[in-house]
Every structure is written in C-alpha cells, then in structure tokens.
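To the team - zinc ion complex, inputs and output below.
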Amino acid sequence: MITVYNTMTRKKEEFHPLREGEVSIYCCGVTPYNDPHIGNARPFVTWDVIRRYLAHKGYRVRYIQNFTDVDDKIINAANREDVTWKEISDRYIAAYFTAMDALNVRRADVFPRVSETMDDIIRMIETLIERGYAYVTETGDVYYSVEAFAPYGCLSGRSLDDMEAGARVEVNATKHHPMDFALWKAAKPGEPSWDSPWGKGRPGWHIECSAMSVKYLGEAFDFHGGGSDLIFPHHENEIAQADPCIDADVKFARYWLHNGFITIDNEKMSKSKNNFFTVKDILKEYPGEVIRFFILQTHYRSPLDFSDERLQEAQTALARLKGANEVIDELLKREGTADTAADLAAQSEAFLRDFDAAMDDDFNTALAISQMFGLAKEINRYHQEVERGAVFDAAHFRTAAEAYRKMAGIIGIFEQDDAAPADDGLTNAVMDFVISLRQEARAEKNWVLADKIRDGLKEAGVLIEDTPTGVRWKRA
Ligand SMILES: [Zn+2]
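Output:
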C-alpha cells in the first residue's frame, strides 16, 4: 500500500488510483527563459523516480508536464536580445531537455505549451465568465473573482482576509477584490497576442495548468506536483479555476505533492536571489547521475542544502554502488551450480521488500537507497568468498543481481557509461531543433521543405513520426 503526504489534507493518506491499474500525473513545468538551475530540476527528478516506482508496481502511468512559453520573463528576455519570444522559448526548452536528459529524467507523455493550448484556455475562461466566476473589465482584461469561489484557500489553508493582510496588494481600481487575479491580459504594444472574445491578449499564468491538466488527463486525475512555492497562489488558483468548470461530481487533482526547496547556506536557491547554480554548469564538474543521486539522497519534501562537499559525498557514495554493479557484471559471466548464495538470495529479497516499503512510505528515496547499500555490501562479501575459493552459485546469485538492478532502475542510476563523458544531450538538443524547423515549415505550409527535412533525416538513419501528442523521433 502506497501512502503519500497530501498537501490538501496535510497528512499522509493511502493512495488509491482513480482508475484501476492507472496513475495520472500533472506536474508544473518550467518557464523557458533561462537554463534550468538545480532547484528547478528537483521536482522533475522526483517525479521521474515516482513514475519509475509506480511502473515497477504494475501501474500504467500517464505524465503531463507543461511549458509556460508565453510569459513576461520570456518577453523581457526577447526584448533584451531583440529576438522573438518564440526564439527564446524554443532555445530554453531545448536547454531544459539537454539538462534533464543528463539527469536520466525520462520524457513526459505530453509537453503542452501555452501557445499551442490557446483554444482550450480561452474556452475555460469563457466557462468561468458564464458561470459567474470571472468578469471582463473595460480594458479587455479578464479577472477571476475569488469571492465567488467559497473554498478559495482550501489548499494553502489561508482565508481571504489573511491573504489580503499578508499581500502587498497593487492598487488596481478595475478589480472587484484585491486578491482577484488575471485570467486574460489585454495586449500591450510590442507583446505577442492572440485573438479572443475580449480582444487581443494573452492568458495569465495560472489558467494554463487548469486547462492543460483537464485537457490531457480529464476532469479528475491522481497526482498534481510541483515545488512548494507553487502552493500559493498558483495551485490554489488552479483549483479555483478548474473546479467550477467540472460538471461531474469529481475532484480535480486528488493528491497534491510538493517538493521542498534546494538551499544554499540555508537560503532558498532562486534566480531572483542570484544564488543559483545551473545544471549545465554543475555538469562541467560532475556527471549527471551524481547530481541526480545527490537530489535523491534526501526525501523530496525535506529541504536540500547544496554544496560542493555534498556533491563530492554523493559522488563517492554512488561510486560504491557502482562498484557492486561491476562485481555483478563480472560474476554473471561465470557458471556454477553450487549452493553457496542461498543466503544472499534470501537477503536480496528482504532488501528489495524494504526498498519497496521505503518507497511506499511517501516515496522515501533516502531510505530506499540505504537498502541498496545494504545489498551492495552483501554482494561484495559474497564476491570475496568466491575469490577466496568458494564455489560459485549462479542461480542464487542471479536473484540477488536482479534485485539490485531493479532498485537501480527505479532510482535511475547505472544508465550512463562511465568510460564516456556524461551524455551532454547534444543529440536530443539537435533533434529538437531540427524538428522545430520542420514544424515551422509545416506551419507555413512549406511542404517541400518539411518533406525534405523528413527525407534527409531518414537518409541519416532517423525516423520521425507525427503522433497525436506531438512529433517523436527514433533511430532507424
Ligand atoms: Zn502549473
């Protein structure tokens, strides 16, 4: 039985999926306007392990993660460089993939972008207006009316009065209540804009995640994730927007899981404090698996202090686990029918049970990893026995080897070849770029160029497929 800490109820609860054998997850993605820092990476590494564990438990997992590709920060970056917003967002979406590939983070099933979900977002805003939860101002902005939604504050545990007292409320005479927030912002000169029933403009930040999660997962789904800084206002607002649009008697997200911050000298790492380290820069010093392992050595809800010393410790610890993996490689080549590893096989099953028990307890990767160390020690001990002359027992040893590798597969380590430098994700970055060029050609109905790109890739041994969820590529 999996139990998870649900921010909504502030306690650990038993996890029961909405649909038998399936788990649906939405995690808030990045605003692509810079290289991701290690604090940005934490939720994605966390959810990658959760996905792997749920798959190991036999669930079919559907995982959606968005890109906020229309945003003030992107527009500002584009103006600074005198390029289009699209150039900035495409560049840093590619940077996101490069960094996450290096951390063995598997791709989401869909990566919806705001710019490609505009119709669904507009439709949801229309519904909110029709149902009395939003209003249009004279300037063509649309605001959400927090007073219309009685449960407002249910996730963060705050009342409207508390929020108002705590917030530096901007003076804005057009809003009915100081905490009302923008669903649609009327276009300003020089900004990207889209047509809407309220004139040209672009959506506010919060509405995209309500629209995208419902679009790709349905009105109700299992997990909603993100950093704990998103609880208020972002996730609070997501609930306020989605709930009134749902007709069926279902809850929007059923379990809200929030990861803790990465800190430096006990201060939250953030772009605004300028005390951040990008994944790209850390990768110059450490392999991606070390960074991943460093993140997973701490339970996802605890704060995680970042330092060079802690990364070095993670590197040493991971090397010990890899040592046992090499022992496995070596021993699996041997044959032997003795009965000398029966104890090891039994122990490995106990370690795997305890590993699962740790993961069942709110995905406690720190404790789960300690079970790997326990089994690594026993594998090394058996190896020494064999080296000292004990007759090898292939069948029982294989049981231990499989248990160890099952754990490694969930933690997501031993996937990178030590001999080669950590994959810098160049192939993926280049492919993302080439595919984006083809998409642009298609958008401009330049079929000749689009086909030329596809055929050229085919000649180079790369097949691209247009699927309902986007373009994929694979080696032929
Ligand atoms: Zn979000």
